[in-house]
C-alpha cells in the first residue's frame, strides 16, 4: 500500500493555485479523515478502503448549470493553453488547486462521437454513437487520467517534493500513457508488464518514450501486487487507477459526450470493463453534471466483461452480495484481462446509482462484433468488440429498446491490435468462427483475372448488403 505522507490540515498550498474551489482525498467507505491531493496515499489508513477525490460542491454552485454549459462550450474553441485539452477545459471540476503552469497536456480529450448509422439499423436501435477515446495521443482513454496524474506530480516536484519516478502495472495502454506524459514532463517512468501478454504496438510505446520497461513472468494482477509494494517508497509515485487522481481526468469523457450531444443525455452508455476505474469515472462525471444542474436525468450504464475475465459479472449475478476475484484467462481483449479489479467498490457504487447492468461476451462474440462494426466504417479494438457484443445481447434480450439512444465507449484505437485484426481475417483465432472474414485475393498479374475477381467480389458484397 502506498505510504501516507500527511493529512490535509498540515499541508501548504503554496504554488497550487488560488480561489475558493478546492478538492481533497477521502475514503469511499465514509471515513471522516481528509488528505491532500498532494499526499502519497491511495488507500484509507483507517480501513483500507480506496480513496476518492471530493470537490467542494457548494463552491462549484457559484455558477448555475447554464453558466457551466456556456463556459465549457466557450472553451471548446480554445486552440492554445490548458483549455485546449478536453480534460483541462473542465479544470474547476478536475483539479482546481493545480497551477496552470504545471499542467502537462498532450491534447487529450475532444475525441469524436461518431454516429454509427448502419450499425444502429442492423441492431434495431433508435440512435447509436461510438465515442472514439482511442483517437488520442497514445491511442487510448488512459490519456485522460494520465494528464491529471503527471500534472499533479509536476506540481509536487515544483513545490520541492522528492519524486524519483512514476510507476505503473499495465496490460499496455496505461504504460503508453504514463511513458508519454512522463517524457513530456521530464519525469522518469517505470513500467511493469506481463511478459508476452501485451500487443507489440503497446510494448513499443513505452520503449519509444524512454520508460524503464520490466517484463515480468506473471499476469497483470501479479504486476499490480508488485507495483503496490514498490510504491510503499514515497519517492516512487503510483500511476495506476487505484490512484483516484486518474479518475478525475477520465470522468470528463461522460461530460464531453453529453456536451457533444447538445447537453442531451443518452438512454444507455456501454463501456468495456477490466480494472473498473473507467466505469467509476464515467459515473462520477455524470453525477456531477446532475448535481450542478447541467442535466436533469441520468443514463443507464452497462459494463461489458469477457467470459475469461469476469469477476464483476459473477458478482452482478448475486446482486453484488458476493465477490470473488478470478484467475483471468488469456483473452483477445487483453486490456481487460484482469481477474482482481482494483476499483470494484467504486464500480459497484456507480452501477447502483445509475441502475446499471453487467453482461459478458465470449471470444467469438467479441471478435465478430468488432468485425461487424469495422464493416460499417469503424476499426474497433477487441475491448470495444466486447462492448458491442454486449450491446447486441442486451438488444436481443429486450433490455435495450428499439427507440433507445445508445453510446458505446471505444477505449482504444484498433491499430494497437493489428495481430488481432489479421488473425481474425486469416481465420487463425482460436474459438472464433470469423463470420466477416475478408482475405486478400491473390491473382496473377493479368487483366482478365482482375476483371473476373472484381465482378465476383462485387456480386458477393451486393449479397451481403
List keywords for this structure.
six-stranded mixed beta sheet; 465 residues; four-stranded parallel beta sheet; alpha/beta; Rossmann fold
In short:
The protein is an alpha/beta fold and 465 residues long. The chain is 38% helix and 14% strand. It has helices at 57-60, 65-75, 91-94, 117-123, 142-158, 173-185, 200-208, 220-230, 244-250, 252-260, 277-291, 311-316, 344-353, 363-374, 382-397, 418-425, 447-464, and strands spanning 23-27, 34-35, 51-55, 113-115, 127-132, 165-169, 189-194, 212-216, 236-238, 268-272, 300-306, 357-361, 405-410.
Q: What do these coordinates show?
A:
The longest helix is centred in the C-terminal third of the chain and has 18 residues, at 447-464. 38% of the residues lie in helices and 14% in strands. Helix 6 (173-185) links the parallel strand 6 (165-169) and strand 7. The chain is built from 17 helices and 13 strands. It is globular, with a radius of gyration of 22 Å. It has helices at residues 57-60, 65-75, 91-94, 117-123, 142-158, 173-185, 200-208, 220-230, 244-250, 252-260, 277-291, 311-316, 344-353, 363-374, 382-397, 418-425, 447-464, and strands at residues 23-27, 34-35, 51-55, 113-115, 127-132, 165-169, 189-194, 212-216, 236-238, 268-272, 300-306, 357-361, 405-410. The protein has a domain at 113-137 and 247-425: 3-Layer(aba) Sandwich (Rossmann fold). With 465 residues, the chain is an alpha/beta fold. It starts with 22 loop residues before the first strand and ends with a helix. It has a 6-stranded mixed β-sheet with strand order 4-5-13-10-11-12, with helices on both faces. Strands 8-7-6-9 form a 4-stranded parallel β-sheet.
Amino acid at each position: 500500500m502506498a505510504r501516507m505522507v500527511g493529512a490535509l490540515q498540515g499541508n501548504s498550498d503554496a504554488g497550487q493555485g488560488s480561489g475558493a474551489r478546492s478538492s481533497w482525498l477521502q475514503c469511499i467507505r465514509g471515513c471522516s479523515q481528509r488528505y491532500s491531493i498532494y499526499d502519497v496515499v491511495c488507500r484509507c489508513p483507517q480501513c483500507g478502503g480506496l480513496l476518492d477525490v471530493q470537490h467542494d460542491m457548494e463552491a462549484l454552485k457559484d455558477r448555475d448549470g447554464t453558466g457551466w454549459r456556456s463556459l465549457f462550450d466557450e472553451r471548446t474553441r480554445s486552440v492554445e493553453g490548458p483549455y485546449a485539452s478536453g480534460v483541462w477545459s473542465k479544470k474547476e471540476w478536475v483539479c482546481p488547486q493545480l497551477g496552470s503552469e504545471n499542467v502537462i497536456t498532450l491534447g487529450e480529450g475532444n475525441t469524436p462521437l461518431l454516429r454509427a448509422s448502419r450499425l444502429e439499423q442492423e441492431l434495431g436501435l433508435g440512435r447509436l454513437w461510438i465515442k472514439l477515446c482511442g483517437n488520442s495521443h497514445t491511442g487510448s482513454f488512459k490519456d485522460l487520467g494520465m494528464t491529471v496524474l503527471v500534472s499533479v506530480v509536476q506540481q509536487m516536484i515544483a513545490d520541492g517534493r522528492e519524486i524519483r519516478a512514476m510507476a505503473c502495472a499495465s496490460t499496455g495502454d496505461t504504460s503508453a500513457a504514463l511513458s508519454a506524459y512522463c517524457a513530456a514532463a521530464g519525469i522518469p517512468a517505470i513500467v511493469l508488464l506481463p511478459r508476452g501478454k501485451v500487443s507489440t504496438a503497446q510494448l513499443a510505446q513505452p520503449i519509444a518514450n524512454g520508460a524503464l520497461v520490466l517484463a515480468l513472468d506473471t499476469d497483470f494482477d501479479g504486476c499490480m501486487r508488485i507495483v503496490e509494494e514498490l510504491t510503499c517508497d514515497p519517492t516512487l509515485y503510483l500511476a495506476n487507477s487505484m490512484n483516484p487522481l486518474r479518475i478525475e481526468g477520465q470522468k470528463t469523457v461522460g461530460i464531453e459526450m453529453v456536451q457533444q450531444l447538445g447537453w442531451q443525455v443518452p438512454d444507455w452508455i456501454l463501456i468495456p470493463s477490466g480494472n473498473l476505474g473507467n466505469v467509476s469515472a464515467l459515473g462520477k462525471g455524470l453525477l456531477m453534471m446532475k448535481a450542478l444542474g447541467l442535466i436533469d436525468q441520468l443514463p443507464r450504464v452497462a459494463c461489458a466483461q469477457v467470459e475469461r475475465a469476469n469477476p464483476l459479472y459473477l458478482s452482478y449475478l448475486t446482486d453484488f452480495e458476493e465477490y470473488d476475484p478470478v484467475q483471468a484467462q488469456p483473452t483477445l481483449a487483453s486490456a481487460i484481462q484482469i481477474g482482481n479489479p482494483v476499483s470494484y467498490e467504486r464500480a459497484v457504487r456507480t452501477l447502483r446509482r445509475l441502475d446499471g447492468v453487467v453482461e459478458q461476451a465470449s471470444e467469438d462474440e467479441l471478435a465478430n462484433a468488432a468485425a461487424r462494426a469495422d464493416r460499417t466504417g469503424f476499426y474497433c479494438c477487441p475491448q470495444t468488440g466486447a462492448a458491442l457484443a454486449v450491446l447486441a445481447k442486451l438488444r436481443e434480450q429486450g433490455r435495450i429498446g428499439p427507440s433507445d439512444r445508445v453510446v458505446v465507449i471505444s477505449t482504444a484505437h484498433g491499430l494497437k491490435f493489428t495481430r488481432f485484426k489479421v488473425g481474425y481475417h486469416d481465420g487463425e483465432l482460436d474459438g472464433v468462427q470469423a463470420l466477416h472474414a475478408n482475405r486478400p485475393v491473390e491473382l496473377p498479374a493479368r487483366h482478365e483475372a482482375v476483371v473476373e475477381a472484381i465482378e465476383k467480389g462485387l456480386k458477393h458484397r451486393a449479397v451481403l448488403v
